[in-house]
Design brief:
This is Amidohydrolase family protein. By secondary structure, the protein is of the alpha/beta class. The chain is 33% helix and 19% strand. It binds zinc ion (ZN).
């Protein structure tokens, strides 16, 4: 029986400091003045303790490709094209090394759960899935990894992709992905959606789609959210569908947007903005007053939509920045979405903890409460409302009651 006692933890800004007693990987009790001897003892001295961060959407298999072929135009089209050329040369060891680096960086920044979207298509085939399944096993004591079969090159456009997605699921993938805008016609985009919904239902898996990633409403292949809401309800998939990017929503007229947000909330769909990519690739044709190019986060939250956010890409043609640090992405989101008040900055933290956990379907075992998994991170900040602006290091990362990262000063995670 392994025990861990965490004392003087700042769990909420409006509450006294708390002690957390952990036994066998589970939070057993939370209170004050615990004094039982434990196998391991951490005095937080008032530092913030959050549940482990949840990286809800990331592509480890195509991280760190920026130097190999930079995206000169800065468009989504060139990002997909350049990456398509590069992945033809992938080897197992190459993909493993780059993906492993993403995992190590993320863990050091306080992430204990991750949903990864390796490409599955006629070029990369199932290499990304194979590598991530291996890493899932190797790193299972440090991070929970969900793997999505992601048809980046389309399904109708990329021969054999649907069969490969099916094969990826047989191998152990956890989630069905989709990318309906990357088809040649609207009819094909709709067929793509039908195929991925069918696949998810057949295998009783959640669905996580890249959709509506544009900064205009002119191309109907990038305007499918309403249809997806209907399909979700018709197929009784409420609570199991996530939409990434969805930046087209930022171009809708306010009344139209409001009606749609209501539908998204009713369909129990999670919206997953990917700020580092959305801001970088959108608004490229604006000659002045360049738009932010993101889905409107505050309005969606006000309509009761479950909104999270994630890193998406680390240093490649889609996003030449990033260090797998969700707090940094949170800063970008807070700035660009006008989320500056103390309450709003705490909401930004909720989006990469509780909201993302709900998206990943792990909410029953997740959080800081008695009976929950002891996946925790101690940040070097004194208030939750300061975490985004402090950009603190993770002093301790705890997975299943075990300290897996311990750092008192900024350390290289190479
Ligand atoms: Zn993505």
């Amino acid at each position: 029986m392994k025990t861990l006692l965490i004392r003087n933890a700042r769990i909420r800004d409006d509450q006294e400091l708390q002690d957390i007693w952990i036994e066998d990987g589970i939070i057993q009790k939370i209170g004050m003045n615990f004094s039982e001897p434990a196998d391991r003892f951490i005095d937080c001295e008032g530092r913030v303790v959050l549940p482990g961060l949840v990286e809800g959407h990331i592509h480890p298999d195509k991280a760190f490709l920026e130097e190999r072929k930079p995206n000169v135009s800065g468009t989504l089209e060139e990002a997909i094209k350049n990456t398509g050329e590069l992945k033809a040369e992938y080897t197992y060891d190459d993909v493993y090394a780059r993906s492993e680096k993403v995992l190590k960086w993320a863990i050091a920044k306080g992430t204990t759960v991750m949903r990864a979207h390796p490409d599955v298509d006629h070029i990369e085939k199932l290499l990304g899935v194979e590598v991530l399944l291996e890493l899932k096993e190797v790193y299972r004591e440090q991070i929970d990894l969900q793997i999505v079969v992601f048809p980046q090159e389309g399904i109708l456009k990329s021969e054999g992709t649907l069969e490969r997605m099916e094969q990826g699921i047989q191998m152990g993938a956890d989630v069905v992905g989709g990318c309906p805008y990357n088809e040649k016609t609207l009819e094909d985009s709709i067929r793509h959606l039908e195929l991925v919904f069918d696949l998810a239902i057949t295998h009783n898996l959640p669905l996580d789609l890249h959709v509506d990633f544009a900064d205009h409403t002119e191309d109907p292949r990038y305007l499918l959210t309403e249809r997806i809401c209907d399909m979700t309800v018709e197929r009784a998939m409420q609570g199991r569908v996530t939409l990434g990017h969805v930046t087209t929503l930022g171009s809708l007229e306010p009344e139209e947007a409001s009606a749609l947000f209501k539908k998204i909330a009713e369909a129990g769909i999670t919206i997953m903005p990917l700020p580092a990519t959305d801001v970088y690739l959108n608004g490229r044709k604006d000659g002045k007053n360049v738009r932010r190019g993101m889905a409107p986060v505050l309005q969606m939250l006000e309509h009761g939509v479950n909104v999270a956010f994630a890193s998406n890409n680390i240093r490649n043609a889609f996003t030449p920045f990033g260090n797998a640090n969700l707090l940094l992405i949170g800063y970008l989101l807070a700035e660009t979405q006008f989320m500056g008040s103390a309450d709003q900055q705490r909401t930004v933290l909720d989006m990469i903890t509780y909201n993302a956990a709900k998206c990943l379907g792990i909410e029953k075992t997740y959080g800081i409460a008695e009976g929950k998994n002891a996946d925790l991170v101690v940040f070097d900040s004194k208030k939750l409302s300061d975490v985004i602006q402090d950009q603190p290091i993770a002093n301790f990362v705890i997975k299943a009651g075990r300290v897996i990262v311990e750092q008192s000063i900024q350390q290289s995670v190479e």
